[in-house]
Amino acid sequence: MTHLDAPENPQPAPPVPEDPPEGATNPWRLRDFRLLWVGRLAAVLGIQVQSSALLWQVYEIARQDHPIEQASLYLGLVGLVQFLPLLAFTLPAGEMADRRDRKLTVVICVGLEMLCAVAFLAMAIHGDPPLWGLLSVAAFFGATRAFLAPASQALLPMVVGRPGLPRAIVAQSLAFQTGAIAGPALGGVIVGLAVPAAYATSVAMFLIGMSCLLLIRTSGRPPVVDQMPSRWAAVKEGLKYVWTTRMVLGAISLDLIVVLFAGVALLTPIFARDILHVGPEGFGLLRAAFGVGALMMALYLSRYPIMRRGGLWMFAAVAVFGVCTLTFGLSKWVWLSALVLFIGGAADMISVNIRQTLIQIATPDHMRGRVSSVSMLFIGASNELGEAYSGVAVRFLGPIGAAVFGGLGALAATGIWAKLFPGLRKADRLT
Length: 431
What we know:
By secondary structure, the chain is an all-alpha fold. It is built from 14 helices and no strands. It has helices at residues 31-63, 68-97, 102-126, 131-160, 165-193, 195-214, 231-244, 246-262, 267-275, 279-303, 310-330, 334-362, 368-420, 422-425. Residues 1-19 have low confidence and may be disordered.
């Protein structure tokens, strides 16, 4: 196999929008892409600093009255209350991204995320925030992410055009991983000083991100809006496209099952406080180690992108990710835990880059919002629902058992998906 699988039921080709007049394969030459990149970096920094503060704050509050196993359930609730709004709104949000101005949607969502950070800040300043208050704001934050993700992903090809898309995806991943490094590390340090300061930093980051997005000149109006079916029919069309396009279905579902089992974000505060005994600074180190590995790999891929044998590279990277999760669970030394998280982040970056490239290339522009919404639903399930699953797993298996079981589950899923989706395994060219 030398190229992407075609969908079993091809969709009629819509008019192809013209590529931006500048840039070609180098998106950095485009002013709007640079603004989009900085805006994404700032928003991710805000999210990561806020997430670090929220996880640490919730766990500290829960540990006042509960043992480790029961306190971990409260951490799971943080993920669950953010996933439920994603489940409810993501598919309609994808349809909206294919019908409404994508840039305006992104700006509004980042503005609402900033208001959530303001609410967290107000409760932290109060000094004794109720858990229900923190969880309520987290739920609203999850609802804004449901609308932000499909609009943001669908806006990127409109800004850079198809020739620059592969490099733009790597660059956007670079922005994300830079935020994933600096955010947890910065969050861990600031939380160690004062939790309200962490939330104040998030407010500032969201404000910068929204300002950059407002300066983008590219129209966010999606193509062929007049030819779209009714809202419910459009949602069903998007679901049908994902279901019948094996390349897209396999890539999205593999991410769901692996991160659901092997995600360690929720486990890091537990390991930092009660297993490795390294405090909030060590918590920041563990959170940052994963992002450092991903950033280093993103820098490498930006210079030497994977162009051939994409499917094999992706499955190999997922297997390495599972091994790293297994080793993290068994580690008793913070340096080893940080090292395997570093390697796991690099492997995850390879998997994410290939998966996103395959999905974007296989999806026509007029359906990118809906396909991105389905992808986001799966990602949300793997992240937020994965945190809820991890909380339950810790309750019954303990933190070490949960990490070991997750690593083994990821390895098993890699082999099963390689057999279920041979076309994905054999995917070759990424251009």
